[in-house]
Amino acid sequence: MSLSLSEIVKNKIGDEGPISFRDFMEMALYYPELGYYTSTGEKFGEHGDYFTAPFFTSVYGGVIAKQLEEMWVLTGKKDFVVVEFGAGLGSLCLDILRHLKQNKSFYEKLKYCIIEKSESLRKKQKTMAESAGDIAEKIGWVSDIEEISPFTGCVLANEVLDNFSVHKVVMKEKELSEVFVDHKNGFTEILKPANENLNKYFSELQVDLPNDFCTEVNLEAIEWLKKISTCLQKGFVLVVDYGFPSSELYQSYRRLGTIVCYHKHAVNDHPYENIGEQDITAHVNFSALALWGTKNGLMNCGFTTQSQFLSGLGLTQYLRKLELEQKNDFEIREKLMLLHTLLISMGKKFKVLIQQKGLEKPQLSGLQFCQPLM
Q1: Looking at the predicted structure, is the pLDDT value of residue 320 above 90?
Q2: How many whole angstroms separate alpha carbon 43 and alpha carbon 53?
Q3: How far apart are alpha carbons 343 and 305 in whole angstroms?
Q4: In angstroms, rounded to a whole number, what is the distance separating the alpha carbons of residues 154 and 92?
């Protein structure tokens, strides 16, 4: 009889000793065939564990497409590659391409590449693409961004970085400790002295954690940015995700950290339950993305909420137009409700950071209502 992922993790700890929370999270999400994202179960939508913006409405992809059109013009109207990391079921990709197909001059120059860590999701993306007709010709899959380097275009990460495996740390008596996972009559957490990279993370950010403050460090996101900067010749990096700048992330009311799990549309803070069957996320530190992006040649264009980003690209005007057309039309009323959800409920929780390389202070409509990033 095959072992469950929980038993595999337990056996690893038994053989090797306690493992870092980062390694536990990596196994829980990406262990071959048994991790949350590598297994075949439904992840998104009514029968999954949570909803994403593209699930609510195709308008979201259309608005992103409008921003991509501006980016293409700013980069010189030449060959343009959109590189989407973690494309889910592929619906955002198709919504973007359906919109851009109307712009023939751009569409001819466009290539869309998906980088997907999950083989299971990659198969679903390809199935969805095949059902989309000739749009599928624009889509390709690569294992690593280096395969298409160097390129001009936009790297798109929509609700991706919160699923990067993170180190969990605690400040104890002015010494930073890292959380490791042990197993003794169940999974338990123990502390070990944090390594140099984790200490350096906070010193570079100029952050002094208070005593007994628990938080997460996403070193993988830093390496991700470094690689993107190396491969991107000219263009943009567009990140949409849960998270905050340092000034908000390390407030006392977040002293327990930001780890959140999603299981059958219920939220919990128990990562050691339902291992491989629930999503595990950590909020993104946008100040860290901005800092290490700059260190690696990615200049900051701006930071805002998803709601303000969508408004800057015309979603508010679109809503007003729909309201005028309503006339008791059930489909229009339903669309209005979904778009209000996108703008208000989800739009204020999600943040947008855009970085660029090789351009001179480009002005983007989605960044009309920027916020300070500290």
Answers
A1: no
A2: 14
A3: 10
A4: 15
d(Cα 35, Cα 24) in Å, to the nearest integer? 11
pLDDT tens string 107-130? 999 999 999 998 888 999 999 999
Residue 232 bridge partners (DSSP): 151
Q: Is the dihedral of CA 231, 233, 239, 245 positive or negative?
A: positive
Point out which residues pair with 84 in neighbouring strands: 114, 156
Summarised one tens digit per residue, pLDDT across range 129-181 is 999 999 999 999 999 999 999 999 999 999 999 999 999 999 998 999 999 99
List of domains in the chain: 5-358 (3.40.50.12710)
At residue 209, φ and ψ (nearest 5 deg) are: -75, 140
CB 312 within 8 A of CB 369: yes
Q: Are 218 and 285 in contact (CB under 8 A)?
A: yes
Helices vs strands, H then E, count in the chain: 14, 16
3-state SS string for 250-261 = CCHHHCCCCCEE
Strands 284-285 and 232-244: parallel
C-beta of residue 257 within 8 angstroms of C-beta of residue 214: yes
Burial of 5 per CB tally in 10 Å (0-12, 13-18, 19+): buried
Give the separation between CA 300 and CA 357, rounded to whole angstroms: 9
Q: Given its phi and psi angles, is residue 353 left (phi above 0), alpha (psi -120 to 50 degrees) or beta?
A: beta
